[in-house]
Amino acid sequence: MKRRSFLSFLGASAASISVAGASARTFSPNEKNVSGDTRRLYPPTLPPALKPGMKIGIPAPASGVGKEEFDKKVKKFTKALEELGLVPVMAKSVLAGNSYLAAPDEVRAAEFMEFVRNKDIGGIICIRGGYGVMRILPMLDFEAIQQNPKLICGFSDITALANVVYQRCNQVAFHGPMAAAELDDFTRQWFLPLVYPESTGKPRFEPIAYTDPAKIVSYTGGKARGRIVGGNLTIVTGLMGTPYDINTSGSVLFLEDVGEKAYKVDRMLTQMWLAGKLQECAAIVLGQFGEAEDNSYSTTIEDVLRSRLTPLKIPVIANFPLGHVKEKFTMPIGVLAEVDADAKKFTILEPSVQW
Hints:
355 residues, alpha/beta, Rossmann fold, Glucose Oxidase, domain 1, 2 domains, six-stranded mixed beta sheet, 11 helices, 14 strands, 31% helix, disordered N terminus
């Protein structure tokens, strides 16, 4: 190919790539974002609210639980659901064998999709995280998920499932309780109003604000709004570069992790920085980062978080009650929220279920 023809070809190719990228990101003219980004504020589909008598499917899309954990924790959780007037329905493959996966990929995907398609199942609360959701993402039927909106909830490895449901289906999903974790009073307080409004006795939705000035730390001041995305830092970075990558443009990004050394957290945040993921956010909320016990360096995870996020000059609050902690706040992924870093306040501005 001649040089001039080759250059013309490059120009045409670049133009076609640009057009393709633009057509893949078309948005309503009515979309507005107070932070300046107009791409992520269109209303998502809301799953139906939980109601008395509703059946709740409990699958294991990642790891399973041992018999002792099942008897000690899961039975306590299912009893709590029953006391709320809900009916837990256990998937077959929840007891772990000798693998870190509850069952083969095809089985875990099929059991999850069975709960999705089953009209008698009103919501899905995963039994635990661990590892394995990323392996089944290509096996999930997102069209069926979109056609059968229902509560999908979990944390840790379930970060991948919840965010991809929002990304692919424009449907709200929840980073919150799982069946192998305790449904304590604090967790109930910040879970039930989001998913089971009838249990709270409120006739209509009101913004849900959380603030604890004694514990929440503000790294950078300011106020911003955006749609909630995020979860476990390891999983968020694990999705990058895949078809299931999380779009952080104009978002309120929340992150947490557990058992990681400071330099590993630094590496993951730096990867996000280099990919432009952090710079796109409207605000950031940091949960708990339980540090590995064998960390022999003087640099702490808090040092890393401050050094990586403060230069962004967007509102950043830390030490928020979410993630691998007993008392946890539920994050409705896809819902509009506001971070007021000066007041150390986080507010959910929209309903996350159909009232």
